[in-house]
Design brief:
Elements (H helix, E strand, L loop, with lengths): L1 H23 L10 E2 L2 E4 L7 E6 L5 E8 L3 E8 L4 E5 L6 E2 L4 E5 L3 E5 L3 E5 L7 E4 L5 E7 L2 E7 L7 E3 L3 E2 L5 E2 L5 E5 L3 E6 L8 E7 L3 H4 L8 E5 L3 E5 L5 E6 L11 E5 L5 E6 L4 E6 L15 E3 L6 E3 L24 E7 L1 E2 L9 E2 L3 H9 L6 E5 L4 E5 L6 E3 L4 E8 L8 H37 L14 H22 L1
Parallel strand pairs: 26-33
Antiparallel strand pairs: 1-11, 2-8, 3-4, 4-5, 5-6, 5-7, 8-9, 9-10, 11-12, 12-13, 14-23, 15-20, 16-17, 17-18, 18-19, 20-21, 21-22, 23-24, 24-25, 26-27, 28-34, 29-33, 30-32, 31-32, 31-34
Helix pairs in contact: 4-5
The structure holds 2-acetamido-2-deoxy-beta-D-glucopyranose (6 copies).
Pfam families: B_lectin, PAN_1, S_locus_glycop
Membrane topology: Single-pass membrane protein
Subcellular location: Membrane
């Protein structure tokens, strides 16, 4: 029994020693606690997950090259016990893990790649040193004797997370890891937005306003900022003394000594956590109902509030719902569309969306039909409110049958119709045919020349000719890319 235990301990120790250094590289403890001018290091891809470059005084946080989504690379500050990234330098444009990235500090901290050059920089010409504080804040400081002035700090440029005591101002924004969702601070509120392409402004899907704004928020008394407080809330402040608003977490006012963080996650939900010594304990889930997540069922999806199940607005079940760009018409040469109507659908963020009072369903639909920037509309029969949707349709919720949904859906493939839409398609067809004919000619030519080479007794193993799938591929893949590039250029 005892021998068995010892064996276990030995195996554990060995596996610890084998896996641990791979994760942490040469060990967080041996990473520098300060980086001075002249520092330069290149990414070493033999570290499997994280190459530590700088440590904080407590050894809890570390700055280094982090592997992201198995194939990408970013500069990050991580919480070592959980290996979660609290800050990332360049989340919108991460590098490939295989890229030859380097980090240098010469007054300014610069992340570059040998092929593309500078990718990210703090643009602080005269910093003297780079330090990681025990709060996870990375700072570039200018020294004057023993006194340090902060020229730049990572706390001012959050990625998807705010940690305890980090000030969040209206000049900053949190972006979910996939960059689809953001959190911003307004004059007296903070809100969550969905960023959609199609040239539209981000759509607000959740908002928290400070209570009793008029009493507490004095105009011209300095900006509002928000901060995760150690007592378990997100406070909005105008002056340091007292918060003008308290947005409590589950552990509000309970004695928790672990680090707290607030993260905007890739499903669009904002969640708070605290570190209990072994796991991140969830402490807040801002959007409690799944159907209220703006994209939970994807584009043209429909969420059932009773069981949170997803379906499609057009009842299609196979191949998913309609493609996200189905309602994009502005500048697209007056493409034809058909109308999809569906009763009993509603917006989860109804109270945040602008509406108009109209006399009838026809008026609501008509105003949308004639406006190319309108993707659809929802009409409330009881109140006469018309909600135009001037952005790509995402998930709607099933609701009262008196709510009538109207959606403009592009008519795909050829067929009837006319006008500019047809001209555009004809042009695409011509371009596509030319590309196809060119490819076919080229294929025939290479086949012919290879045959000739073969006959001449040269390398015969290379005979491939046109692969059987070429015709089909050309028809779908390259044709689609033509269409895509077309609508992309028109959108701009
Ligand atoms: C972090 O550093 C500050 C000052 O630099 C110090 O007051 C505080 O006690 C430190 N906290 C921890 C957890 O070490
Ligand atoms: C947050 O803002 C307050 C008030 O301006 C300031 O006193 C404090 O030092 C700031 N904290 C950080 C980490 O920048
Ligand atoms: C942290 O939470 C987990 C799961 O609830 C629990 O198993 C663990 O004991 C907790 N750790 C501490 C130090 O409280
Ligand atoms: C989809 O199914 C629902 C319920 O079965 C039905 O009321 C609705 O008319 C259908 N919609 C379409 C567009 O087929
Ligand atoms: C079209 O819709 C957009 C967004 O709803 C609106 O701002 C614009 O004024 C409308 N244009 C016309 C001509 O009605
Ligand atoms: C809409 O309201 C009108 C009158 O307010 C009523 O006659 C009509 O039946 C309602 N339609 C639906 C689908 O509920």
């Amino acid at each position: 029994m005892a021998a068995n235990k010892q064996l276990h301990a030995l195996v554990f120790l060995l596996s610890y020693l084998v896996t641990r250094p791979a994760w942490f590289g040469n060990g967080a403890s041996s990473a520098a606690q300060e980086i001075r001018k002249g520092f330069s290091v290149t990414h070493d891809s033999s570290y499997s997950e994280f190459q530590s470059l700088l440590a904080d005084p407590t050894g809890v946080f570390s700055l280094g090259f982090l592997r992201v989504d198995s194939s990408q690379l970013d500069l990050a500050v991580i919480h070592l016990p959980s290996s979660s990234a609290l800050w990332r330098a360049n989340p919108a444009r991460p590098l490939l893990w295989s890229a030859s990235a380097s980090l240098s500090f010469d007054g300014s901290l610069v992340l570059s790649d040998s092929r593309t050059g500078v990718l990210w920089s703090t643009a602080t010409a005269d910093g003297d040193r780079l330090v990681l504080l025990n709060s996870s804040n990375l700072q570039i400081q200018k020294m004057a004797g023993a006194a340090a002035t902060v020229l730049w700090q990572s706390f001012d440029f959050p990625s998807d997370t705010l940690v305890q005591d980090q000030n969040f101002t209206s000049t900053a924004a949190l972006f979910s890891k996939d960059q689809r969702f953001s959190m911003r601070l307004g004059a007296s509120y903070f809100a969550l937005y969905m960023d959609l392409d199609g040239g539209s402004t981000p759509v607000m899907y959740w908002k928290h306003s400070a209570l009793d704004v008029k009493v507490l928020i004095v105009p011209d008394e300095g900006p509002i900022y928000a901060r995760v407080d150690a007592h378990g809330f997100l406070g909005m402040y105008q002056k340091e003394a007292a918060p003008v608003d308290v947005f409590p977490f589950d552990s509000f006012n309970r004695e928790i000594s672990g680090l707290r963080r607030l993260t905007l996650e890739s499903d669009g939900n904002l969640r708070a956590y605290y570190w209990n010594g072994s796991i991140w304990v969830r402490d807040l889930e801002t959007i409690a109902h799944r159907c209220e997540l703006p994209a939970v069922c994807g584009a043209y999806g429909l969420c059932n509030s009773a069981d949170s199940r997803c379906s499609c607005l057009d009842n299609s079940t196979e191949e998913g719902c309609l493609p996200p760009g189905s309602g994009h018409f502005c500048g697209d040469g007056g493409s034809e569309f058909r109308i999809l109507r569906r009763n009993g659908v509603d917006l989860a963020n109804q109270e945040l969306v602008a509406y108009r009072k109209v006399a009838s369903l026809e008026e609501c639909e008509g105003s949308c039909e004639q406006n190319c920037s309108c993707w659809g509309a929802i009409y409330h029969n009881a109140s006469g409110f018309c909600y135009p949707l001037d952005y790509p349709i995402q998930t709607l919720v099933e609701g009262d049958m008196r709510r009538e949904g109207y959606f403009k859906v592009r008519v795909r493939t050829s067929g009837g119709g006319g006008g500019a839409g047809r001209t555009a398609r004809v042009a695409l067809l011509v371009v596509g045919s030319v590309v196809f004919a060119g490819a076919a000619l080229f294929g025939a030519y290479s086949l012919w020349s290879r045959r000739r080479q073969m006959r001449a007794g040269m390398d015969g193993s290379m005979v491939e000719g046109l692969a059987p799938g070429s015709y089909k591929d050309l028809n779908s893949a390259s044709f689609r890319s033509l269409e895509l590039s077309n609508s992309f250029s028109l959108r701009k």
